[in-house]
Design brief:
The protein has two domains: 116 residues, Rieske Iron-sulfur Protein, CATH 2.102.10; 197 residues, Alpha-Beta Complex (Naphthalene 1,2-dioxygenase Alpha Subunit, Chain A, domain 1), CATH 3.90.380. It has nine helices and 17 strands. The radius of gyration is 22 Å and the shape is globular. It starts with 17 loop residues before the first helix and ends with a helix. It is α+β, with helices and mostly antiparallel strands. The protein is 24% helix and 26% strand. It binds FE2/S2 (inorganic) cluster and fe (ii) ion. The site of FE2/S2 (inorganic) cluster has 10 residues, from loops.
């Protein structure tokens, strides 16, 4: 079960293939990584009014986040009676009511009404409340953490709010969402995101836009930042043109599974949710300071989304083949490019730290 990991990239080997193919490791990751880390679960705008709520999954755990009139609160979406769901989808309610036998809970999680329980000995509704989870927000995003003892979201984000302040993330509003189900382990997708090494071979279109020689990854405690400056020049076939000084995009990745691409006037969030050891769901959301009334009818947005889809399709193609090949009896571990894969090595170091 345990595996070795060298913190010095020059001597290190990549994660053993079984971590991508054996569901024992997925269970371990759900408990030790997804059960202890902050997860993006929704949008602040959907919880603006008292009584508004949303539901989400963290790994294989269901949660609900509510605006109780004063603060946002989070709970396991599990009724104390026989584990029914106390909320479904999203919406607005005065109490949370279980869909199974109708027990209802106040928005602070305390049990409000449990019909026909009078004859049950020692049953004390006043002492019962939904199991809480931690909730916090940053900019337009709502995060939750199943671990009540986990350090704050601010601790995990360390420095990101300051570095992105000039892009005004708190002024960003939701534009559109896309979802993909991909036949690979969630870590295959994350590994792929964390390096620019595959740009020339996998993304010839994007490669033309970016200054590959200046591409670098800056690892921090729980996140890393990729610098991918645009190439100089304007040619007619160019898709991106820098608007001015300091206009470069910032590509953040927050352990374990969140990517935040942020630049002038826009932000994309990308969450990779495990759906089995060899399957993941990627939820991609776009935000903008000045969103169009209808993104699907806006030519600038249609072009941006089409280019992003093209890159995503290229990444999906390679990730799915890699997943299949990780099952081969011929392969176990590889080596890192010290020049190009320090972001992947940093991620694997965190996986090793949390699992062992
Ligand atoms: S499981 Fe919720 S009321 Fe029965
Ligand atoms: Fe890629």
């Amino acid at each position: 079960m345990p595996f070795s990991f060298n913190p010095d990239i020059r001597y290190a080997e990549t994660l053993p293939a079984r971590l991508y193919t054996d569901s024992v490791y997925l269970s371990l990751e759900e408990a030790k990584i997804f059960g202890r880390c902050w997860q993006l679960v929704g949008r602040v705008a959907d919880l603006a009014e008292p009584g508004s709520y949303l539901t989400a999954d963290i790994g294989d755990e269901a949660i609900v986040v509510v605006h109780d009139g004063e603060v946002l609160r989070g709970f396991h979406n599990i009724c104390l009676h026989r584990a029914g769901p106390v909320a479904t989808g999203c919406g607005k309610r005065q109490t949370l009511q279980c869909r199974y036998h109708g027990w209802s809970y106040r928005l602070d999680g305390t049990l409000h009404r449990a019909p026909e329980m009078e004859g049950t000995d020692g049953f004390d509704p006043d002492a019962m409340r939904l199991m809480p989870v931690q909730v916090a927000t940053w900019g337009p995003l709502v995060f939750a953490n199943l671990d009540l003892k986990a350090p704050s979201l601010a601790h995990f984000l360390e420095g990101i709010p300051e570095r992105t302040a000039r892009f005004q993330p708190e002024a960003m509003r939701f534009v559109l969402q896309k979802r993909w189900t991909i036949a690979c382990n969630w870590k295959v997708y994350v590994d792929n995101y964390l390096e620019g090494y595959h740009l020339p071979a996998v993304h010839p279109g994007l490669y033309k836009e970016l200054d590959y020689d200046a591409y670098r990854v800056e690892p921090h405690r729980y996140w890393s930042l990729q610098h991918a400056p645009l190439r100089a020049g304007h040619g007619p076939e160019r898709k991106y043109v820098a608007q001015g000084e300091g206009d470069d995009a910032q590509y953040y990745w927050l352990f374990p599974n969140l990517m935040l691409n942020i630049y002038q006037g826009q932000m994309q969030t990308n969450v990779v949710i495990p759906r089995g050891v060899d399957r993941c769901e990627v939820v991609f959301e776009w935000y903008a300071v000045d969103p169009p009334a209808d993104a699907s009818a806006d030519p600038t947005w249609t072009r941006l989304v089409a280019f992003s889809d093209e890159i995503q399709d290229e990444d999906i193609g390679i990730c799915e083949v890699v997943q299949r090949n990780l099952r081969s009896r011929s392969y176990d571990r590889g080596r890192y490019s010290a020049a190009r894969e320090n972001g992947v090595h940093h991620f694997h170091g965190l996986v090793h730290e949390f699992l062992t």
